[in-house]
């Protein structure tokens, strides 16, 4: 599997978090569609099938992440 560059993953995670906030605050269809698009790209980029798993996988690949750190897995 191809691995996305950490800078790309960081950008996608930041975009998703921003869009999630915008959608929660404003709930526009445009924000929701963009959030869905970024979520899909994150899933493809990390080889996962849902956004929660994609966010965890992306964060573990970012610089400074500790491979043994499972704190992001807590639900």
From TrEMBL:
<dbReference type="InterPro" id="IPR033457">
    <property type="entry name" value="DUF5133"/>
</dbReference>
<dbReference type="Pfam" id="PF17196">
    <property type="entry name" value="DUF5133"/>
</dbReference>
<protein>
    <recommendedName>
        <fullName>DUF5133 domain-containing protein</fullName>
    </recommendedName>
</protein>
């Amino acid at each position: 599997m191809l691995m996305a560059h950490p800078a790309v993953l960081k950008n996608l995670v930041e975009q998703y978090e921003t869009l999630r906030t915008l959608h929660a605050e404003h709930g526009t269809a445009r924000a929701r569609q963009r959030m869905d698009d970024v979520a899909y790209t994150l899933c493809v980029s990390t080889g996962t099938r849902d956004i929660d798993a994609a966010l965890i996988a992306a964060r573990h690949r970012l610089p400074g992440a500790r491979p043994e750190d499972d704190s992001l897995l807590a639900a």
